[in-house]
Design goal:
The chain is an alpha/beta fold and about 800 residues long. The protein has four domains: about 210 residues, TIM Barrel, CATH 3.20.20; about 250 residues, Aldolase class I (TIM Barrel); about 100 residues, no CATH class; about 110 residues, no CATH class. About 40% of the residues lie in helices and about 15% in strands. It has 32 helices and 26 strands. The two termini are about 55 Å apart.
Length: about 800
């Protein structure tokens, strides 16, 4: 029995249960996803087909239930052919209260799906069996919070079993299961499998995507979106992107209901999540749905154990020693926040590496800041944060000033390997932000070895991918590079960021990245928004106290996007509301995109200083003017990450560092994972499937030729071939004759080409091996190839090769007489 239950959803709007049937036969829960169906016919038909053809548990995912569908479910249950699971959008719990009670009484397990952390209706928790937590990276209708954040919120707020939908991978499954989640959903990850019946053109479109090609269209102010795939030639998708800004869930559902594009992506919409990034890679790596499920089971069973006794984020660990700090923690550079030497000192004294945010600082302001930093930190290591996309003249000036102070480290946001190489050459060890795993081979080839992987949960300028998706792609990509020998693991220094702030989030990260740490990579965490809750950040003057009060009160973050690639995450405040109003006005007035972006960028200008320092300039060269708290809140832009919605009290930096290191280690030690072997049911007969076959027979070099011979009634019996031996010397029709044979007929194999190097055999050794053994090796290899197991890992505990052979001692053995 698996430690982690996997629910396999059919693509919403596809109206085909084949994938769900395959899932129920492969050990998962097969779910027909009726989202965006405009009638009940497909769901009712799916119920019947899953009951008839499935071998295991199955169910329905519903965003609407009418009397006809409810009656069909009741009828199926009465006939003993009903669903094992029903997953309902949370709002349906109220309107379907009686039906839910009736279905649960009949043995159906009912889960409610949530897209936000809004409380359920009174009494709802007692009426269901668990929650499906759907993150922003998932396909279809989604909220603002990414899976990593939303799951943490519900872990804080409920004792119900939790299932994750959005960003599930083997590493993520292991990470969330170790912290209490009971299951997860696979859907867009599986789009390249044969069991998913989509048009060939659509299949080609979803191959080899990074996940950033999916777009969340909708209302950024309320955090209500529809995530779809947008590609060249997808006319309907591009039209929705253009027209869909400001649409909320009900309106978005109307736009897609009955209009998915699984047959024609140009005319319909494809609800696809960021996890599509894994679809082609998993098809090649695992080959089948069962192979993917086995990979999840293996990760859940193995990864927590890798870090339980040897936590990744431990005091004096490999990266901590490399950084020269107590902990493998780097304080992320925060514009207009981490620009005080006193705050850097507080971070360093608490055991982490502080980073001074240069942003657009220059001249004497920068000079004085670095002088003060150097004086206060003395021999302690510290670093600088640069914007790789800043004007080159500004970057050159900043680097010239910094060269007089020789910081130990640098972080370049939006940087290139050649920029990092320049700094490394001058003795400044440099980390590069990497937003996509597709960049990893090129960055490594250019000599980069220090990377930051920051999910879009972070504050400030955000990238395209959520932490769970980005981190998993990086674990896979770097694992492949290490396995191929293109880079040595111990050369890598890796920082993961975006949503880590306490013991639980740190424990999940550590399990997720365990394969890289176990291989020898130096792994740490980069935190920014978590420091906004610390006493020292106010005491040092990095931010004013009203900023921290706003952080503590924050329940909702938004992205302020002035244009493509220009998005910043901040708290939802009066200024954020003003930004959305102005953006809507510019769009309504038909202002060109470039002009609109400049206007919105101008609107943002100076807002960070108002929030963090409580002052502003009234003109380009005007002196700074202090603002009262009401003005600060009305005009300030409070840049922060989604972790701000998870915390509500002030702590000190030492406590923060202790939570993500020793606190996480304690949780990992406490949350023991039961040995999968102990849970496995014993003594039950197992179903056996023959999934590969190969053979060599007389007049048939392979299985296809043998079948053709059977169909064509080919007689494969011949006289003994002269090249075997001369039968005339031994033949005697008298069966009683001594030392003679009375038959000259038989079935004989043709010569077989054998490459000993393929099996690691020295060519000279072949002469001393019986040909039957060599042929057995080759035929076994062909069997594995036929099963699709020749180029990918598989569960060897549940697989065997059965060999059938005849011929006694074989030709070589007969030579001994």
């Amino acid at each position: 029995m698996s430690l982690f239950k996997v629910y396999v959803f059919t693509p919403p709007g596809l109206r085909d249960p084949t994938l769900a049937i395959a899932a129920s036969r492969a050990g998962a829960v097969g779910i027909y996803n009726a989202e965006f169906d405009t009638d009940n016919d497909a769901a009712i038909d799916a119920l019947d087909r899953m009951a008839q053809l499935g071998r295991g548990p199955f169910g329905l995912k519903l965003d609407a239930v009418d009397d006809a569908l409810g009656a069909a479910i009741d009828g199926a249950l009465e006939a003993g052919r009903g669903p094992d699971w029903l997953i309902l959008d949370a709002p349906l719990l109220d309107s379907q209260r009686a039906a839910v009670a009736r279905w649960r009484a009949a043995g159906v397990r009912v889960l409610a799906e949530v897209r936000t952390a809004a409380p359920l209706a009174a009494g709802a928790e007692a009426a269901i069996d668990g929650l499906v937590v759907k993150g922003n990276e998932a396909p279809g209708l989604v909220g603002e919070d990414a899976s990593f954040i939303l799951l943490q919120k519900w872990m804080q707020r409920t004792t119900l079993p939790l299932v994750l939908r959005g960003g599930l991978t083997p590493q993520v499954a292991a990470a969330i299961q170790a912290q209490g989640a009971v299951g997860g959903v696979l859907e867009s990850q599986l789009l390249m499998l044969d069991e998913v019946r989509i048009a060939d053109g659509v299949r080609k479109s979803v191959a080899r995507l990074s996940g950033s090609e999916t777009v969340a269209v909708g209302d950024g102010e309320s955090g209500e979106y529809l995530r779809i795939l947008v590609r060249p030639g997808f006319d309907a998708a591009r039209r929705l992107v253009s027209e869909g800004e400001g649409l909320r869930w009900d309106a978005l559902r109307e736009r897609i209901a009955g209009g998915t594009g699984w047959e024609d992506a140009a005319r319909g919409l494809l609800p696809i999540g960021q996890e599509v990034a894994f679809a082609e890679a998993w098809r090649r790596r695992h080959g089948s749905l069962r192979g993917i499920l086995a990979a999840i089971d293996d990760a859940v069973a193995a990864l927590p154990g890798l870090v339980r006794g040897q936590p990744v984020l431990r005091e004096d660990g490999p990266l901590a020693r490399a950084l020269g700090t107590r902990y493998p923690i780097v304080q992320g550079p925060m514009t207009r926040v981490s620009d005080t030497a006193e705050f850097a000192l507080a971070v360093a004294e608490a055991g982490a590496l502080p980073m001074i945010a240069f942003a657009l600082l220059e001249g004497q302001t920068l000079q004085r800041l670095l002088e003060r930093t150097e004086a206060l930190l003395a021999e302690r290591p510290w670093g600088i944060g640069l914007l790789g996309f800043a004007p080159q003249t500004l970057l050159d000036e900043q680097l010239r000033v910094a060269s007089h102070f020789r910081p130990a480290y640098a972080i370049i946001a939006g940087g290139r390997p050649d920029q990092a190489a320049q700094l490394e050459h001058s003795g400044v060890r440099t980390f590069l932000h990497v937003p996509s795993a597709k960049l990893i081979p090129g960055f490594l080839a250019e000599g980069a070895r220090r990377f930051i992987f920051e999910g879009r949960e972070c504050g400030g300028h955000i990238g395209p991918l959520s932490s769970f998706v980005l981190w998993s792609t990086m674990v896979d990509a770097l694992g492949d590079e290490i396995a191929s020998g293109k880079v040595k693991a111990d050369e890598l220094e890796l920082l993961f960021a975006g949503g880590v702030h306490d013991a639980g989030s740190s424990a999940m990260l550590q399990v997720l990245v365990a394969p890289l740490a176990a291989a020898g990579a130096r792994v740490g965490v980069l935190m920014g928004s978590a420091y906004l809750f610390t006493r020292e950040i106010v005491a040092s003057g990095a931010i004013v106290e009203p900023f921290q009060r706003e952080v503590i009160a924050c329940e909702h973050t938004v992205n302020l996007e002035s244009g493509p690639g220009h998005a910043s995450r901040c708290a939802y405040t009066p200024f954020a509301a003003e930004f959305f109003r102005e953006r809507a006005r510019l769009k309504r007035d038909g202002v060109p995109a470039d002009e609109s972006r400049r206007a919105l960028d101008d609107l943002i200008l100076g807002r960070l200083r108002i929030a963090s320092k409580g002052c502003k300039r009234d003109g380009l060269n005007a002196p700074l003017r202090a603002l009262d708290e009401a003005q600060q809140r009305a005009e300030g832009m409070y840049m922060l990450g989604q972790v701000a919605t998870l915390r509500d009290r002030v702590i000190d930096i030492a406590t923060l560092h202790g939570e993500v290191t020793a606190g996480a280690a304690a949780r990992l030690a406490r949350d023991e994972v039961v040995d999968a072997a102990a849970q496995a049911a014993g003594g039950e007969p197992a179903d056996v499937a023959i999934i590969g076959i190969a053979c060599v027979l007389p007049k048939a070099a392979d299985a296809r030729a043998f079948w053709d011979n059977v169909v064509d009634r080919v007689d494969a019996i011949t006289e003994i071939p002269p090249h075997r031996w001369d039968w005339r010397l031994y033949f005697d029709p008298d069966r009683q004759a001594r030392d003679r044979i009375y038959a000259k007929w038989g079935g004989f194999l043709d010569d077989m080409a054998f490459d000993p190097t393929r099996f690691g055999l020295p060519p000279k050794s072949v002469q001393a091996v019986d040909p039957m053994q060599l042929m057995g090796l080759e035929v076994a290899r062909r069997t594995l190839e036929d099963a699709g197991y020749d180029q990918r890992p598989f569960d060897r505990e549940r697989a065997s090769v059965i060999v059938g052979a005849s011929g006694g001692a074989g030709d070589f053995g007969l030579q001994y007489g």
